[in-house]
Amino acid sequence: MKSPVDPTRPRLIAAALRLMQCHGYCGVGLAAILKVADVPKGSLYHHFPKGKEGLAVAAIAYLESEVDSRLQGFIGLGLNLGDILLVMASECGAWLAETNFTQTPLLSAIASGGAPSGVCTAAHNARTRWIKTLSSLTHDQAKSQFALTVLEGGLMAVRLSQDLSNLYGPVALAARALDQIRAEYSSGSVK
Asked: Could you say which of 28, 58, 149, 159 has the lowest number of CB atoms within 10 Å?
């Protein structure tokens, strides 16, 4: 007989991710995470012996895997980097609007503002994985870094301004530039 799955760990991760995307690592206390997850304090340390830092690292790992799977799906559909950038901006923008501009979909808010080195390392590693995944499409790490940086910067600007044009305008410009570079390389006009 299969043993029941303990839902405590995923609930803690989901609560931490949601709150940290809203308030950053340093802006969220354990009490708030436990309340949202509806679990006792002992459960946190059972699943995450390193406490809040270990939980944040697990939340980032979850986000890393989800976004990477999404990126690989786009690549599998045959989308180019500019198209992926536009689709991601559209999805992230819709999510920002849905959350009343309180949550930042990517890593910037979680690891900023004094997060411990383990959390910053996890965020850096996640971003590096996404760049590597995008680079498998472009064979150009700089283009992939550029695309992700434009997306993340636009998301932060939208969160501050609550105006989606601060995301969609720069992303559209970056997507056109990436498409133009791709076309120039394809035609052989750039060596």
From this structure: 149
The set of residues, in sequence order, having a beta carbon less than 8 Å from that of 46 and lying 6+ positions away, is: 8
Return the H-helix or E-strand segment holding 40. Answer: none
In our burial notation (b when 16+ CB lie closer than 10 A, e otherwise), range 123-145 reads beebbeebbebbbebbebeebbb
Q: Is the pLDDT of residue 38 over 60?
A: yes
Helix, strand, coil percentages, rounded to 5, for the chain: 75, 0, 25
Question: Does the pLDDT at position 110 exceed 90?
Answer: no
Q: What end-to-end distance do the CA atoms of the chain give, in Å?
A: 63
Tokens 């303990």, residue? 6
Asked if residues 134 and 144 have their Cβ atoms less than 8 Å apart, the reply is: yes
| C-beta separation of 87 from 33 below 8 A | no
pLDDT per residue as tens digits for the range 173-183? 999 998 776 55
Q: Hey, what are 166's tokens?
A: 């601060």
**Gap between the Cα atoms of 145 and 132, Å rounded:** 9
